[in-house]
């Protein structure tokens, strides 16, 4: 997505960049910083001093996010998760396919390159960067097409992390309503969990469960995509860490011994998530934002607006 060269608005020595980055990283690991503030600190680092380890950023965020999500599973109950899954299933199916169809129409209307448009639609419909990473090899997109789609998703994710809790409190949404809403309407798992964690413990459990169940739709959507783009031989990346998340929930539900360490594992997972959002922010500099382009960003905003408003209206109506 990004080149190995760091970017900053000011000329700062590499050694000083590392010191600033490490110090702010330690602040985020302290446990006293909320996920939105961690993201904001990352954005500040990216645009003022630069990211000294940019070439490692994408891989580090993926690994840390997956480990953190598995850790959160130790704070959840299988029976509650199944109940939540039933509620979220119809919302998930309806929102995924309506978003994909609308994304295709908007892409044609704005005359956006076909593969870029499809990646943005899949990222909005399912689970952000993870969906784009899984679909990109299926359609054989080039680096620029993938980078533009990821850029759009990461920009909107950053906005969502601050916007959704504020809207939730303004509308006085319940924990269940907010958890379900952000799982459907926020793209990336990291921002979903970050926003829900800020809203409340019940919202966090609902949001994480529904979002990970939603992520499994990568598989059928990738198969449909392979057929549409006439590329049947492509390998599909399956999000295996979801299986570990389910295993963690089962251990927490059925093995009483796990309850002794579960609170500590969940606490560490939340800190890991906070640091993940710091890294995501640190990888989103102004140079990347400028390469996105107006039309792809407009497509992303329109799709995001549709899924956010439609899902919220549906949740409030049925509840």
What does this structure look like?
The protein has one domain (57-318). Helix content is 77%, strand content 0%. The termini are far apart. The model has no long low-confidence stretch (mean pLDDT 85). α5 (114-125) runs parallel beside α7 and α9 packs antiparallel against α10 (201-215). It has 319 residues and is mainly alpha-helical.
Helices and strands in order, then pairings?
Elements: H1 14-28, H2 35-49, H3 54-72, H4 78-109, H5 114-125, H6 129-139, H7 143-170, H8 175-185, H9 189-199, H10 201-215, H11 218-228, H12 241-254, H13 262-282, H14 286-292, H15 294-318
Helix pairs in contact: 1-2, 2-13, 3-12, 3-13, 4-5, 4-10, 4-15, 5-6, 5-7, 5-15, 6-7, 6-11, 7-9, 7-14, 7-15, 8-9, 8-10, 8-15, 9-10, 9-13
Biggest sheet character: none
Q: Label the overall shape.
A: globular
Number of helices: 15
Strand content is: under 5%
Low-confidence stretches: none
Distance N to C terminus: 40 Å
- Can you count the beta strands? 0
């Amino acid at each position: 997505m990004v080149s190995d060269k760091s970017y900053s608005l000011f000329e700062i020595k590499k050694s000083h960049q590392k010191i600033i980055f490490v110090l702010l990283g330690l602040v985020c690991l302290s446990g006293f910083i909320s996920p939105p503030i961690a993201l904001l600190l990352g954005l500040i680092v990216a645009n003022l001093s630069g990211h000294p380890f940019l070439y490692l950023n994408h891989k580090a965020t993926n690994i840390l996010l997956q480990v953190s999500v598995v850790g959160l599973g130790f704070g959840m109950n299988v029976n509650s998760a199944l109940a939540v899954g039933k509620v979220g299933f119809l919302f998930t199916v309806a929102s995924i396919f309506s978003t994909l169809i609308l994304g295709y129409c908007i892409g044609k209307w704005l005359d956006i390159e076909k593969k870029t448009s499809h990646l943005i639609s899949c990222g909005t419909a399912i689970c952000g960067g993870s969906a784009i990473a899984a679909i990109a090899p299926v359609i054989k997109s080039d680096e620029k097409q993938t980078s533009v789609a990821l850029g759009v998703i990461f920009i909107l994710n950053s906005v969502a992390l601050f916007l959704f809790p504020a809207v939730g409190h303004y509308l006085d949404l319940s924990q269940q309503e907010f958890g379900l809403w952000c799982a459907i309407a926020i793209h990336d798992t990291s921002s979903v969990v970050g926003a829900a964690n800020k809203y409340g413990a019940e919202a966090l459990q609902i949001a994480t469960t529904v979002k990970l169940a939603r992520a499994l739709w990568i598989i059928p959507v990738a198969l449909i995509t392979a057929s549409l783009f006439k590329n049947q031989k492509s390998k599909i990346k399956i999000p295996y860490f979801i299986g570990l998340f389910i295993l963690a929930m089962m251990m927490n539900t059925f093995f009483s011994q796990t309850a002794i360490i579960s609170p500590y594992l969940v606490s560490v997972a939340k800190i890991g998530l906070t640091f993940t959002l710091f890294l995501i922010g640190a990888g989103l500099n102004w140079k990347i934002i400028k390469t996105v382009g107006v039309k792809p960003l407009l497509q992303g905003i329109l799709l995001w607006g549709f899924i956010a408003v439609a899902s919220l209206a549906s949740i409030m109506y049925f509840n």
